[in-house]
């Protein structure tokens, strides 16, 4: 059995195949996911799993050099923003309009859909390197 915290095989594979600057999106239940982008759907029911809990597990395995959010998160979901920022000390943060955020999902290697039901609970993790 796998020894690390992440048990989902598909998500573990996605993280293992990321290279430097590749993007992995963690999103709420409502973010549109491009049909051409690898969709890892973890949503079970409203709120399960949550975006923060999902990000916490992912960040145990993924080295992040930058996180991108929709600008609107600052006003519409500051709790989500604060939770993610707390998990990523020393990482740079970028804010873009929500429309641009959705465009960036087309460039992501994968989108992880959660059961999150709060607004703008979406983040793009840009992969770093461990050396």
Approximate helicity band: 25-40%
* Number of separate strands: 6
The CATH class turns out to be Alpha Beta
- The CATH superfamily appears as RbsD-like domain
Mean pLDDT: 97
| Number of structural domains | 1
Which series of helices and strands comes N to C?
HEEHEHHEHEE
Largest sheet: 6 strands, mixed
The number of helical segments is 5
Structural class: alpha/beta
Strand content: 15-25%
Examine the coordinates and then state which fold CATH places here, giving the name of the CATH topology: RbsD-like fold
Cα shape: globular
Unreliable stretches, pLDDT < 50, 5 or more residues? none
Radius of gyration: 13 Å
Trace the largest sheet across and list its strands: 2-5-1-6-3-4
Gap from first CA to last CA? 27 Å
Can you offer a commentary on this structure?
The protein has about 130 residues and is α/β, with parallel strands linked by helices. It has a single domain (about 10-125), classed as RbsD-like fold (3-Layer(aba) Sandwich). The protein has helices at about 10-15, 50-60, 75, 80-85, 100-105; strands spanning about 25, 40, 65-70, 90-95, 110-115, 125. The chain has a six-stranded mixed sheet. α2 runs parallel beside α4 (about 80-85). The model has no long low-confidence stretch (mean pLDDT about 95).
Question: How would you describe this structure in keywords?
Answer:
5 helices; single chain; 6-stranded mixed sheet; RbsD-like fold; alpha/beta
Quick take:
The chain is 28% helix and 23% strand.
Strand and helix map with partners:
Blueprint: H1 9-16, E1 23-27, E2 38-41, H2 51-58, E3 64-70, H3 73-76, H4 78-87, E4 92-96, H5 98-104, E5 110-113, E6 123-127
Parallel strand pairs: 1-5, 2-5, 3-4
Antiparallel strand pairs: 1-6, 3-6
Helix pairs in contact: 2-4
